[in-house]
Amino acid sequence: MRKTLILVGLLAACSLAALGQGYDTMPADAHVIPIGVEGTVYEDMELGVRGGTLHIPNIEDPKAWNNHTAKETSTTWFTYRMHRGLMNLDHISGAVVPDFAKSYEISEDGLVITFHLREGINWSDGTPITADDVLFTFNDVITNEDVDCNARPGMILPDGTFPICEKVDDYTVTFTLSTIYRPILNQMTFSLMPKHKLAQYVHKLNPDVPAGTFNETWTLDMDLSELVGNGPWIVTDYQVNVSVTMERNPYYYGYDPAGTQLPYYDKIVSHIVANQDVSMLKFRNGEVDVYAMRPEDIPILLPEGPSKGFQVMVTDLAQYGTTWICPNLDIGLADGTDEEKRELYRNVEFREAIAHLLDKDTMVQNVLNGLGTAQWTGVSVPSPFYAGRDEYGGPTTENDAVWFEYDPALAASKLDALGVVDQDGDGWRDLPSGAPLTIEINANDNTIRIAYCLIIQDDLRAVGLNANFQVVDFNTLVNRLLGATGDIIQLGLTGGDEPNSGKNVYTSCGNLHAYRYSACEDPDEVDLRIDELMDLGANTFDLDEAFDYYKEYQILLAHQLGYIYLCQPTFLYTYYDYVGNAFMASPTSTPGGNNGLLTELCFDKRL
Length: 607
Description:
The structure is a single chain. By secondary structure, this protein is an alpha+beta fold. The chain folds into two domains: 13-279 and 578-604, Periplasmic binding protein-like II (D-Maltodextrin-Binding Protein, domain 2); 322-495 and 555-569, Dipeptide-binding Protein, domain 3. Helix content is 24%, strand content 19%. The protein has helices at residues 73-82, 131-142, 152-155, 184-187, 195-198, 276-284, 298-308, 339-345, 348-355, 360-367, 408-417, 447-462, 474-482, 503-506, 525-538, 543-560, and strands at residues 13-14, 31-32, 53-58, 87-89, 96-98, 101-106, 112-117, 164-169, 172-176, 233-239, 243-248, 254-255, 267-272, 290-291, 310-318, 322-327, 372-374, 438-443, 466-471, 488-493, 564-565, 567-576, 579-580, 603-604. The strands form seven sheets. It has a five-stranded mixed sheet with strand order 1-10-11-13-3, with helices on both faces. Strand 8 and strand 9 form a beta hairpin. The radius of gyration is 24 Å and the shape is globular. The relative contact order is 0.17.
């Protein structure tokens, strides 16, 4: 639910961050979150007390600590908790609201946005945060071509330009647009970065360092005392394959109505575990306090809840995000191999055959225990722009949905027509030339994804495709996807209400356009039309008009079958009774990460 979509799942660095002492009194410009205030979306929450440690399981180690170069949730789970932007998504409603900006105004023509920053607020090391940090983040990181920045595509205006970010005074900045750009406030959730710590690594500001140096900053082997943020938490200890510890930022500007500085907990310990089975075991043993459970866990956890003192939250709320398989349409392109296989993968008839071999009903029933839904588009089902609606924000009808029904016979006939048949009598279909066709499917050690892949493997084999499934660790999987070195990758992406947040994925030059990175240099007609539609949808304040553009883009995307979508579970969560406010976990509760839990608003009731 961030401004861009993120992929979902070394040496040990052990150090205490150089945290400042904190504010003597609550700053006048503190961000007061109305916990327990009647008439707000927070009215059912409780005021908490400070102290204690929250234990959470996580399957993947982070890849780095640099938020703007991160493309995977193994990293952003931590970096989103260390950094906040001018705007943010409201913790409960998901609405875009001021965060480090205390207020803003939009000019009458919609082309100039003025942000008024909170004064008297410091970075976690005690250095004041000013307009210079905003300009540094936007002008020297996000729009700097030397930086491999995940946020950049979403900042490009429909006419191909960037907003112009200028300083009015130390606590006022303006963004001037050349054209109407409806999602601009969503994009203002970009994480602010400390100029005093990072400017030295930016070539345009420090010519003594090579271009691209920023991409290699804040790596896992850094001295963690150098990490600085403005969010509620700061990483203070990392034990590879064991844990990541985050401590309260003493200069975080969030407070509750009683004047208590947030977050309530002193620490979060994220336990790095091998897989979800270990997460489940640690939760049942009381080693972790919360757990984003799987449908298969419900029959085990429900009977244990009353005696062990935990709650099992089962909802019918569709989760944000997508799950998919991604055939690598650039397979072998970099090293001049696999030309015939690449040509086959690029044939949409072949991808349609694969789509007809995806038994999504079985996935929902057998893997998700019926607690999920099949997907066909890159826009999350809860979004008012989801193309399964007849109008913006209307009820889901699926009237325009593009479904490739499970039909092995049809898939087999499509393969036959492509000349993908068994030519040597060994039982497996070959490439049209007669060369063997082998397909490797990769996923990380996630039991739901593994179950999906085993079903897919069996169905591909049933029609004579020699498909083999192998588990690899998450970060290796991401490297294969981003490097276009994999074969067929099974992974997922985060999601949100604004389709433009997927611009870094679905436009031809997006840095997560992983099914065919070569489209940036060689786009086809569909690529070009999707690029155009993404801009048209952003270039209007008329939501109905934007919906029509985004619907066409989603239908084209579904027929393109670059990412071939699978299923998404409904939102499930479990937590011990002593974790205050954990009952408010939901699909929208993700400003600080991607696990549905409001870590800065939870507290230990036992204190």
